[in-house]
Specification:
This protein has an eight-stranded antiparallel barrel with strand order 1-4-5-6-7-8-9-10. It has a single domain, classed as Lipocalin (Beta Barrel). The N terminus is likely disordered. 13% of the residues lie in helices and 45% in strands. The chain starts with a helix and ends in a 12-residue tail after the last strand. The protein has 214 residues and is mainly beta. Pfam families: YceI. Keywords: Signal. InterPro entries: Lipid/polyisoprenoid-bd_YceI, TTHA0802/YceI-like_sf. This is YceI family protein. It comes from Bombella pollinis.
Length: 214
């Protein structure tokens, strides 16, 4: 039997209803977050960086393949904690030549210093969906305190993998020379702007091991 235009539209609406309903379960209210133990969801977590290049352009790059854990307490945010690691060799830019240069000893030294790691030491809520997260950043073999401005994006069941997920956006600024990365300063800016898109999936059980992000 041929579908009329009205019945075809109805069928299309039913097809789309399930994804729309699933997406509608995502809440942008921090009060709705489920507390607990989370792991980084690496496919949708990324760290982008930008520098001022020769005074002409803001040049950007990207790191991926993050791992780590989040212990989240929405009732007492200050008791939450975060540990995230990034493989330095994951760095990418729009220039394959520059990407390889950044992995070299003259820049990030991916062979000698294979990962960067941020471990939180304090969380200070600054608004309903915002916080300052201060921690120790280890980069290029040097550890220094740094602060991230973190904004809660949303929480709910991921419509694709059915995992309860929370998402955040974080920004911060570091000086690369303080981590021993001084190539072409100041022609390529010492200040590096960071932006992190962080996705975390809630785990049923928190492991007893100290190496929780393995």
């Amino acid at each position: 039997m041929l579908l009329t235009s009205r019945s075809l539209l109805a069928a299309m609406a039913l097809t789309c209803a399930a994804p729309v309903a699933a997406f509608a379960q995502v809440s942008g209210e921090s009060a709705a977050i489920q507390g607990g133990y989370y792991r980084v969801e690496p496919l949708h977590t990324q760290v982008s960086f930008s520098v001022l290049h020769l005074g002409f352009t803001v040049y950007e790059g990207l790191f991926s393949g993050a791992s780590g854990t989040l212990i989240l307490d929405p009732r007492q945010p200050e008791s939450s904690s975060l540990t995230v690691s990034l493989p330095i060799a994951s760095v990418q830019t729009t220039s394959s030549k520059l990407t390889e240069e950044l992995k070299s000893d003259a820049w990030l030294g991916a062979a000698q210093f294979p990962k960067a790691e941020f471990v939180s030491v304090s969380v200070k809520q600054t608004g309903p969906n915002d916080a300052l997260v201060t921690g120790n950043l280890t980069l290029h073999g040097i550890t220094r305190p740094e602060t991230l401005h973190v904004h809660f994006i949303g929480a709910g069941v991921n419509m694709l993998d059915k995992q309860y997920t929370v998402g955040f956006d974080a920004t911060g600024t570091i000086k690369r020379s303080e981590f021993g990365i001084k190539m072409f300063v100041p022609y390529i800016s010492d200040e590096v702007e960071l932006r992190i898109a962080g996705a975390f999936e809630r785990q049923a059980v928190q492991p007893a091991s100290k190496d929780q992000d393995d």
